[in-house]
Structure formats: structure tokens, C-alpha cells
């Protein structure tokens, strides 16, 4: 696993291109995400509560390794407990890609705390989820740096995006914070290494998952 940091200044760009990046990320793996964006299924920021009956002691959720500071959904196991919830839940309360776990059975804390709570030997889980708001942001650099320190992890190949690690003073993107995630650049949903190349351009249209906290 090779992490990459980039703040999109010329010096950092040189360093970033020298870092080995796992390029085995077939674009067809991203078709479902492209369809979700096109169909407006990744849209409104909100929190909601789900009640999941575990199956074989498992919640049926997979989590992103691109940002270990928070617990962000990267997939739903089929078949599984969450897949069953998604089939019967109220409209808009199905658990989706990029949703974030905030609380499990009344317990909040770090990503590891939440994982531990999910793995406890209980039959039912009450989980508070957050759905990000998807912002579309246009940027013209005009020779300036973007002002974001971005993290790329190749440990989680599908839908990892570019995770915001730090927002520098004078950044060209406003109302963004650490743990937000760039998921599309100039109309393309791509593997992280290709998204990183995309944000080095002079004129950008980005879709960003923005969370409340």
C-alpha cells in the first residue's frame, strides 16, 4: 500500500509523480458510481437512523480504507444484513456508497470505536448514518495552486476518490474541510491516481462529497 500526498503546487506535483501508484483500477468498476451520480442518487446531506438485524454475526457493510479517520461506506455485501435493510427501508434511508457511520447503538467515537461497536456480539444494530451533500465546484487556477492537501490510498481501489487531508490558507475551494472527498473531476469518475492527474489541470469542475462534521 503506497499513500500519496499532493497539495497541487509545482514542487509537490514533482514528488507525487515519483511515487509508485497501483494502476490496476479498471474503469468498468466505476460504472455503478457514474450511474448513481447521473441519476441523482448521490445528492442531499442528511442524517438518518437504520436498524439492522445481523446475519451470521455480520453487518454486511464494507468500509473505505482511503480515510481511516472516519468510517465511510465503500460497499454493501450481497446478500447480507444491510442489503436486506435496503430492500425494505423507507425511501431515502438505504445505505449507499459514501454514507458515513456516526453512531452505533448509542456509541460514538473514532473509526476504530465504531468498528468495534459494529462487531459486538449483538443481534440488532441501531446505526446513525450521514449522507454527504454533493457539491459541484468550478475552479480556474490562473497559475495558482489549488490549496488542498489530498490523500490517495491504493489499498481501497473502488470509489476511493481523493480525500481532503488539509485545507491551506487561501485555497481556491471554499466551504471544504478535512475528510471531504473529491469523487469526480471534469465529468469523469476515475481511479484515484487518474483523479489526481485531473486536479492538476488549470480549469476544473469537481464533484465533492461534503460532510457536516
From the N-terminal CA to the C-terminal CA, the straight-line distance is 27 Å
Q: H/E element string? A: EHHEEEHEHEEEEEHE
Give the overall average pLDDT.
Answer: 80
CATH class of the largest domain: Mainly Beta
Q: Main β-sheet, in a few words?
A: 6 strands, antiparallel
The beta-strand count equals 11
Helical proportion, percent range:
10-25%
CATH topology of the largest domain: Pdz3 Domain
The assigned CATH architecture of the largest domain is Roll
Structural domain count: 2
Give me the side-by-side strand order of the main sheet: 1-8-9-10-11-7
CATH-defined superfamily of the largest domain: PDZ domain
Radius of gyration: 18 Å
Structural class: alpha+beta
Query: Unreliable runs, pLDDT <50, ≥5 residues?
Result: 1-30, 40-44
Which range does the strand content fall in? Answer: 25-35%
Q: Indicate the overall shape.
A: elongated
Q: Figure out the total of helices.
A: 5
Amino acid at each position: 500500500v503506497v499513500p500519496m500526498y499532493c497539495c497541487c503546487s509545482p514542487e509537490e506535483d514533482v514528488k507525487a509523480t515519483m511515487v509508485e501508484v497501483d494502476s490496476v483500477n479498471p474503469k468498468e468498476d466505476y460504472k455503478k458510481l457514474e450511474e448513481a451520480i447521473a441519476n441523482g442518487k448521490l445528492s442531499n446531506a442528511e442524517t438518518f437512523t437504520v436498524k439492522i438485524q445481523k446475519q451470521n454475526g455480520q453487518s454486511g457493510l464494507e468500509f473505505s480504507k482511503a480515510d481511516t479517520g472516519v468510517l465511510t461506506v465503500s460497499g454493501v455485501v450481497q446478500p447480507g444484513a444491510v442489503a436486506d435493510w435496503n430492500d425494505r427501508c423507507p425511501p431515502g434511508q438505504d445505505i449507499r456508497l459514501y454514507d458515513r457511520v456516526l453512531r452505533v447503538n448509542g456509541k460514538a467515537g473514532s473509526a476504530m470505536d465504531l468498528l468495534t461497536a459494529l462487531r459486538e456480539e449483538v443481534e440488532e444494530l441501531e446505526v446513525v448514518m450521514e449522507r454527504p451533500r454533493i457539491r459541484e465546484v468550478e475552479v480556474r487556477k490562473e497559475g495558482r495552486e489549488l490549496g488542498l492537501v489530498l490523500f490517495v490510498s491504493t489499498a481501497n481501489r473502488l470509489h476511493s476518490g481523493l480525500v481532503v487531508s488539509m485545507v491551506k490558507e487561501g485555497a481556491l475551494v471554499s466551504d471544504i474541510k478535512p475528510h471531504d472527498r473529491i469523487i469526480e473531476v471534469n465529468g469523469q469518475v476515475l481511479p484515484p491516481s487518474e483523479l489526481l492527474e485531473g486536479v492538476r489541470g488549470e480549469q476544473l469542475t469537481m464533484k465533492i462529497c461534503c460532510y457536516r462534521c
